[in-house]
Write a sequence for this structure.
């Protein structure tokens, strides 16, 4: 675990469901943000001991960027007696995450605001108190720097209009983002976000 800036921690752990058929690597990232009174855990797996102790001292909440990043969220919510916030489940999900559902445009009572991502339940979370964006699958680093999922060749649902998604994500660039916290990848900066969301200039006639 490392403190990437004051009050923001990053750690990696091996995902228990990973196998060689997965397109993503075995290590995934989780984050904690501490505002001095409340500890927020994002897409958490196995918090290090230091965070376990801090969670005992702070009001704690758990936030998922997408429902399939449930990881250890429910077990941790039970352990800490913490509220769990989750985007809507996939249609027909036989075992949805047991938490408070939020959607694009919602501001959570724990200080995070949901912005659109690749799908209605794969959201990008803005934590204004720390000028931080937290991204699930929509923004990733697969070893070539921060990329928009729509620019990658696999795992984009057939019904998704990638250009429309990218257009809806442009308001992220109006936020005073200083750090981008990737749950598939490691923390990066505003310049990487701007590059990932850049749109080609309109073609001249």
């Amino acid at each position: 675990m490392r403190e990437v800036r004051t009050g923001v921690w990053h750690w990696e752990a091996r995902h228990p469901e990973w196998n060689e058929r997965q397109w993503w690597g075995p290590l995934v990232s989780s984050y904690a943000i501490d505002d001095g009174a409340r500890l927020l855990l994002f897409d958490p797996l196995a918090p290090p001991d230091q965070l376990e102790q801090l969670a005992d001292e702070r009001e704690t909440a758990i936030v998922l960027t997408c429902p399939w990043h449930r990881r250890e969220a429910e077990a941790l919510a039970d352990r800490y007696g913490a509220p769990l916030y989750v985007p809507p489940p996939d249609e027909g999900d036989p075992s949805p995450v047991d938490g408070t559902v939020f959607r694009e445009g919602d501001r959570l009572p724990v200080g995070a605001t949901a912005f659109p991502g690749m799908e209605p339940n794969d959201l990008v979370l803005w934590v204004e108190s720390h000028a931080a964006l937290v991204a699930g699958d929509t923004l990733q680093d697969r070893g070539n720097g921060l990329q928009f999922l729509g620019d990658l060749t696999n795992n984009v649902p057939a019904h998704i209009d990638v250009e429309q998604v990218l257009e809806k994500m442009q308001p992220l660039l109006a936020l005073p983002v200083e750090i981008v916290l990737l749950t598939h990848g490691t923390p990066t900066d505003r310049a990487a976000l701007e590059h990932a969301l850049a749109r080609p200039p309109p073609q001249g006639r």
Summary: The mean pLDDT is 89. The two ends are 52 Å apart (CA to CA).
